[in-house]
Write a structure and sequence with these properties.
- The complex is a heterodimer of chains A (about 400) and B (about 425).
- Chain A is about 35% helix and about 5% strand.
- By secondary structure, chain A is mostly helical.
- Chain A has two domains: about 200 residues, Cytochrome c-like domain (Cytochrome Bc1 Complex, Chain D, domain 2, Orthogonal Bundle); about 130 residues, Cytochrome c-like domain (Cytochrome Bc1 Complex, Chain D, domain 2), CATH 1.10.760.
- With about 425 residues, chain B is mainly beta.
- Chain B has one domain: 7 Propeller (Methylamine Dehydrogenase, Chain H), CATH 2.130.10.
- The chains are: A mainly alpha (about 400), B mainly beta (about 425).
Chain lengths: ~400, ~425
């Protein structure tokens, strides 16, 4: 019922504002303002010369992002895997599910602050938000469209899109413009001004508690996290944008995948049974390996290397790592503390850390201080677009 | 207004049939539905298309079960709806002229006319704006006859493909009437919550005599569409299963009580007897039989009354079928391909009295009103069914003589290039010939 009234409210707003009005809606104006002046702790937003943001592009991009008709059978929108209320990723699944239930190998990254990512996807195979959209539209396990032409024809035929591309670009639907519109909206999803930012960049000494400050010291010191998740002088993305082998993917493919041990299955909250692995395998497709960056470059040195993710808003984006195999921040910190199974390709920075229990808790507390105060506003921005059915 | 009218209609129907729920030929059907007076003549099987098999599309398959017919035990008609929609459940309208079957994936509802030629159902209407009309419900599941309308329980929603969902009512003409969201902790809609209110849905069935409806809870689109083996190993996904059954004030359509029934309670079966104020449900993951009953004080309660197989092996009980005299409950479990019969004449102390392996996997069971014939199908969900050689897909018919199930016929749906058979509904010419 709340859903219905929310949708009705949105429809009301749209009919009052009217898509043809010259005055941008408040939500689009706010998005533009965020791009022009990102919140505390973020650097200026890099903008492609051929796609300056505009209110009309942002509004169109948002609408497209929430439109399930963009998939072949009308079930998947981009937002089904990048759910606003779930940190713009999916908290309910290790790896998401696409058209007809086809399973993906990889965890959906958040699209918060994606504007700063120089290489997209866990393996960095894409280089611009404008072109990134093509992958999910065509991937058989995501939106499964038969072709780009099919998608564009479909949009061109939908009455609720009449005039929207023209207003944003002065020309009708085309894949380049579709990518530009979605990218423009994604660029506006800037979420910083966290407790950490107020403490570190805002000079608010009380913004971080003692435990969080202890965690920060470990992060840049003993635990060595900032080597790959760096903190800059004026801004921080908490990623070096590079690819590393943390040992997690190697372990999953080369060690865990060979086990014959029973599978723990939680059949009800707090009730776990150990199920014969053969029984589980009888109802499952074979597991696929994930060689990370190597799948793009084919360079043996890139085996199991994955892109360092930003740690901003990380408390909202569980489960973690490229395969969603770690379910809590504590599990991630314990993973680093253990230091991975030794093997040749392992990043030398990954080694046992010898952290105490209080240090683990402090690191987790620090990671939790990276949650932006603006996320609620971004969810509201996102949900100002009705779900397209 | 409409609600009062509806209440009156329900009452009239019940009165017209002599104060007890209307008899139905197939047990476990809506008491508001017309009945076949003789034996079932056709079994309609809503079948999932399989990529690369035949036309790959979901289809309604008609099996001839007329005794003595030259095509007895054979497929006599098959109508594809085009594309795969995760064919699952469906039901007949109160007048039994239409069979509504739906797709859990695309949320389309296909309406077949089964009256004009019961041996060859015809697709007459497709509802393709269910999500929009319902205000965001995904995965129309059952289609349960109410007077002049259909009650459709959803499984998911279009915001996140999670388990929060609603009950949706349509007129028999295919028009959306109302959407009732499941109660949640934040929006309980006045319901008393025993432990949690997850807002999930699965089945919904009515006991008109007591003005109550019972709904159960499964899981959202992401889980029911996912590879089963993958899901069992995804600890986050496993957290997203229903743990509730909701008792509703049927006429007001408001939830009264949210029972705590962990492990995904699925099918609901109200007892038929005029004084039997109880229903059964089974939990898929925890493999238990639950009783939801009105106690001496007039309060509704829920309790587990039996284990089904060895719960630690997750036999996964799925469909259940209660005999017309409320004495025997058939329970299919998917993983071990087994049907078990429980003596439930004392509903508080069910006892297993029989079991038989029907195949490598097993899902639905439908029994005739006289309890003498049982029909089985194999498919649970496209991506949950077993893989490779274990992926048997069949319709099998058996006779029950009170002690033994005797095989009558099998149809191999893989070999026939049809797909994965799921729900079955009965049809007969006699219904429409005066």
């Amino acid at each position: 019922m709340r859903l219905r009234s929310a949708i009705a409210g949105v429809l009301l707003c749209l009919s009052i504002a009217g898509p043809a009005q010259a005055e941008p809606a408040a939500v689009d104006a706010a998005a533009l303002a965020r791009i022009a002046q990102p919140p505390l702790g973020l650097p200026p937003v890099p903008l492609p010369a051929d796609n300056p943001p505009s209110a009309a592009k942002i509004a169109l991009g948002r609408k497209l992002f929430f439109d399930r008709r963009l998939s072949h059978n009308g079930t998947m929108s981009c937002a089904m895997c990048h759910v606003p209320e779930q940190g713009f990723t999916n908290n309910e699944l290790a790896t998401p599910i696409g058209v007809e239930g086809r399973g993906l190998r990889r965890n959906a990254p958040t699209i918060l602050n994606v504007a700063y990512q120089k290489r997209l996807f866990h393996d960095g195979r894409e280089t611009a938000l404008e072109t990134q959209v093509i992958s999910p539209l065509l991937a058989p396990d995501e939106m499964a469209n038969p072709s780009i032409g099919y998608v564009i024809d479909k949009i061109a035929g939908l009455p609720d899109y009449a005039g929207l591309f023209e207003r944003a670009f002065g020309a009708g639907p085309a894949i380049g413009r579709l990518g530009q519109a979605i990218a423009s909206w994604e660029r506006s999803l800037l979420a910083a001004d966290a407790s950490f930012d107020r403490w570190y960049y805002g000079g608010e000494a009380a913004a971080l508690g003692e435990r969080q400050r202890q965690g920060y010291d470990l992060f840049i010191g003993k635990a060595g996290c900032a080597q790959c998740h760096p903190v800059g002088e004026d801004a921080a993305l908490f990623t070096d944008g590079a690819f590393h082998n943390t040992g997690l993917g190697y372990h999953a493919d080369e060690v865990a995948a060979r086990t014959t041990a029973p599978v723990p299955v939680e059949i009800a909250p707090g009730r776990t049974v150990m199920v014969d692995r053969k029984a589980v395998e009888s109802v499952g497709l074979p597991r696929l390996t994930d060689l990370g960056r190597h799948e793009v470059t084919l360079d043996p040195a890139d085996l199991w290397r994955f892109k360092t993710p930003s740690l901003r808003n990380v408390a909202l984006t569980a489960p973690y790592m490229h395969d969603g195999s770690l379910r809590s921040l504590e599990a991630v910190v314990r993973f680093y503390d253990r230091g991975a199974v030794p093997h040749e390709a392992l990043d030398p920075m990954i080694r046992p850390l010898g952290l105490g229990e209080d240090e683990i808790a402090a690191l987790v507390a620090f990671l939790e201080s990276l949650t932006s105060v603006d996320v609620g506003a971004l969810i509201a921005d996102a949900r100002s677009a009705p779900v397209g059915n | 207004m409409t609600r009062t009218l509806l209440a009156l209609c329900g009452l009239t129907l019940v009165l017209a049939l002599g104060g007890s729920p209307a008899l139905a030929d197939e047990t476990c059907q809506s008491p508001y539905m017309a009945k076949i007076t003789g034996q079932e003549e056709y079994v309609y099987v809503w079948t999932l298309g399989v990529q690369g098999l035949g036309d790959g599309s979901d289809k309604l398959v008609t099996v001839d079960v007329r005794p003595g017919s030259s095509s007895y035990g054979k497929v006599v008609a098959s109508t594809s709806v085009g594309g795969r929609h995760e064919a699952h459940h469906g039901g007949l309208t109160d007048d039994r002229r239409q069979l509504w079957v739906s797709g859990l994936d695309t949320s389309k509802i296909f309406i077949f006319d089964v009256a004009a030629d019961p041996g060859k159902p015809k697709l007459v209407k497709t509802i393709d704006d269910f999500e929009k009309a319902s205000g965001g419900v995904v995965g129309p599941h059952g289609a349960y006859a109410l007077p002049g309308r259909m009650l459709i329980s959803g499984l998911s929603n279009n915001k996140d493909h999670g388990g929060r969902t609603a009950l949706v009512e349509y007129s028999n003409e295919g028009k959306h009437i109302a959407t009732h969201w499941m109660p949640t902790a934040e929006d309980s809609n006045g319901a008393k919550i025993e432990s949690v209110a997850d807002g999930y849905g699965y089945d919904a069935r009515v006991l008109p005599r007591k003005n109550v409806m019972l709904s159960t809870s499964f899981t959202g689109w992401s889980n029911y569409m996912m590879d089963f083996g993958k899901m069992l190993q995804d600890a986050d996904a496993m957290k997203r299963f229903g743990q509730t059954a909701v008792l509703w004030d049927f006429h007001a359509r408001t939830p009264k009580k949210v029972f705590h029934v962990p492990g995904a309670p699925l099918e609901v079966r109200w007892a038929w007897g005029p004084r039997n104020n109880y229903a059964f449900t089974t939990t898929a993951l925890t493999s238990q039989l639950w009783l939801i009953y009105e106690d001496e004080a007039g309060e509704w309660q829920a309790k587990a009354v039996a284990d089904i197989g060895d719960p630690s092996k997750i036999p996964l009980p799925v469909d259940i079928s209660l005999s017309a005299d409320d004495s025997l409950l058939w329970i299919d479990s998917f993983m071990d391909g087994t049907v078990r019969a429980f003596d439930v004449s004392d509903p508080h102390q069910p006892k297993q009295v029989y079991e038989k392996v029907i195949g490598k996997q097993l899902n639905m069971v439908s029994q005739s009103w006289d309890g003498e014939r049982l029909y089985f199908t194999t498919s649970l969900l496209a991506n949950w069914d077993k893989k490779g050689a274990d992926n048997e897909q069949f319709v099998k018919a058996y006779d029950w003589d009170g002690t033994e199930l005797k095989h009558r016929f099998s149809i191999d749906f893989n070999e026939a290039g049809l797909g994965r058979p799921h729900i079955m509904r009965f049809g007969a010419k006699s219904l429409y010939s005066n």
